[in-house]
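re: ur question from earlier - yeah i can do the single chain one, its not a big deal. heres the input i used so u can compare w yours
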Amino acid sequence: MLPAYNEETALSGTVRDLRAVLAGLGRPFEIIVVDDGSVDGTGALADRLAREDPAVRVVHHERNQGYGAALKSGFAAARLDWVFLMDSDGQFNPSELPGFVDASRDADFVVGYRAERADPIHRRLFAKAWARLMRLLLGVGVRDVDCAFKLMRRSYLVVMPLEAGGAFLSAEMLAKARRMGARFAERPVTHLPRRAGKQTGGSMRVLLRAFYEMGRLWLRVRRFRPARPSPSRS
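and the output i got, formated as tokens:
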């Protein structure tokens, strides 16, 4: 699954590289591009890629709804047993996916962590503080809560109510999965400079919204009564 907002310059290369890796795994696959109300040519490009390749599917948001909403739309559209999340901006290398597939034999969520973040120092410092806070408040004991390189068993996602928006969606998902008894594994991933385009996740508006949602999420997770996912471990 590739969430995309104004990623016209990076999307084709990301889809191409991811498709090559998925084809090499020898398993059924689909590539779901979620166009989150882009105002450049991302939506049209995604539609063209889908016409050229039946493995590519597109979900469109008429207006920008934010990263959390894009993830939820992608999860809802997924049809196979496993969901792989990767951002579409070209900052991750899909060639590292096979190692996640191997790790999934003993895990329900394989969570990446950026070994060396290709981000400004203020974003790196914020990420460290954020991870500590998520461990303290929500019991999410992973190194990099928001790393957009994750492999997840879909049976957990389909019974898990996800309510958070923006920066808290990943934290909510991992906290609830932990309460559902999901098995976790972590793997380092390479973080590359953006191919093009502009980061939006670190804006002051996004960060303030995230802190506002923090208390609400803490309450939701405490009140969460886990449902049982499918017992399948395939």
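The chain has a mean pLDDT of 86. not sure if urs matches, ping me
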